[in-house]
Design a protein that fits this description.
This protein has one domain: Beta Complex (Metal Binding Protein, Guanine Nucleotide Exchange Factor, Chain A), CATH 2.170.150.70. 4% of the residues lie in helices and 41% in strands. A hairpin with a 6-residue loop joins strand 1 and strand 2. The radius of gyration is 15 Å and the shape is globular. It binds zinc ion. InterPro entries: CENP-V-like, CENP-V/GFA, Mss4-like_sf.
């Protein structure tokens, strides 16, 4: 096989546990990282956040509309926490980080909902994907190599 261009991000398919929710997206697991955050919901739900290389590369395949997903919002309701309405698996979050007066668009899937690559290559070994940590509890997006207070490995 010829070498792929460096910016060719493999498209991955993912799903909830029962398969009701399915999606595809471009994820660079070789060069990218998974983010763990110490904020109240990321910590309690044990999120492993993985952002697609671009928001447009993400597509919800089933169900046909986000309105058919379980959607949890709280506080300023800037972020949708989407889960499967049947099996309750958290699948992705989408919305805005409130950073003082700024609102930064944000979207991430749960890395542990990835199933396979659409190019036929074997799925990446998640053990080899670097985990980075943010201090979402204090609205700080700086990435460190170890958890901030209140977080967990
Ligand atoms: Zn499900």
């Amino acid at each position: 096989m010829s070498a792929e261009p460096a910016d060719a991000t493999p498209t991955h398919a993912g799903s909830c546990h029962c398969g009701h929710v399915t999606y595809t997206g471009g994820f660079d697991l070789a060069a990218g990282h998974i983010v763990k955050c110490n904020c109240s919901i990321c910590h309690k739900k044990g999120y492993f956040l993985l952002s697609p290389t671009s928001t447009p590369s993400f597509s919800l395949l089933t169900p046909s509309s986000e309105s058919e997903l379980a959607d949890y919002q709280f506080a300023k309701k800037l972020i949708h926490h989407y889960a499967c309405p049947k099996c309750s698996t958290s699948v992705y979050i989408s919305g805005f980080f409130g950073m003082g007066k700024k609102e930064i668009p944000f979207m991430a899937v749960m890395a542990n909902t990835l199933d396979r690559r659409l190019d036929g290559e074997p799925p990446e070994d998640l053990r080899k994907v670097k985990i980075k940590y943010i201090d979402g509890r204090h609205d700080q997006l700086e990435l460190l190599d170890e958890p901030f207070p209140g977080g967990a490995w």
